[in-house]
Structure to design on (184 residues):
């Protein structure tokens, strides 16, 4: 079992993971064709993709080396992200199956989706210049405004809370170095 997980976390295993996602999405697309689930098809496709991504993170963590001198395992961070992502996605699926989730919209706001993707890409690029903490805080501030949140206390507390959480979990608990830029 361990050998299979190590193989799947290697370079050739990545091709299998990449080929598996369309197969999973196609299966979910076919399964949601019934009348009861059809209004939630896009929501369920997104949930399936996120669950698949969380399983990929989990399985890829088996390919990371154990380094005892660091203080925490390199496998901890991807497994932590995978568990959180799977938990919240499973909750979203539960609400969808219970009928408490809103139906998929008839049409989407493509400009907002592209702007969100640009903000995230700019934030990833900006980590090399200003560092993780400042880059992620600015990204959250801009995304909150872009998505319609206008209360300054909510926007600032969300960005500040995320930076504090990131610092406490990754820097203090897991002793992992987050990307540092030229300034921080």
């Amino acid at each position: 079992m361990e050998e299979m997980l190590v193989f799947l976390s290697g370079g050739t295993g990545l091709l299998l993971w990449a080929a598996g996602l369309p197969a999973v999405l196609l299966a979910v697309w076919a399964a949601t064709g019934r009348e009861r689930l059809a209004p939630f098809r896009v929501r369920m496709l997104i949930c399936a993709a996120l669950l698949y991504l969380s399983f990929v993170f989990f399985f890829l963590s088996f390919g990371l080396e154990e380094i005892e001198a660091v203080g925490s395992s390199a496998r901890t961070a991807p497994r932590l992200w995978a568990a959180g992502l799977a938990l919240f996605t499973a909750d979203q699926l539960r609400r969808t199956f219970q009928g408490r989730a809103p139906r998929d919209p008839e049409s989407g706001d493509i400009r907002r989706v592209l702007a969100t993707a640009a903000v995230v890409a700019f934030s990833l690029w900006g980590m090399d210049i200003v560092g993780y903490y400042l880059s992620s805080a600015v990204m959250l501030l801009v995304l909150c405004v872009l998505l319609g949140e206008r209360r300054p206390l909510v926007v600032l507390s969300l960005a500040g809370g995320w930076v504090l959480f990131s610092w406490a979990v990754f820097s203090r608990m897991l002793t992992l170095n987050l990307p540092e830029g030229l300034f921080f």
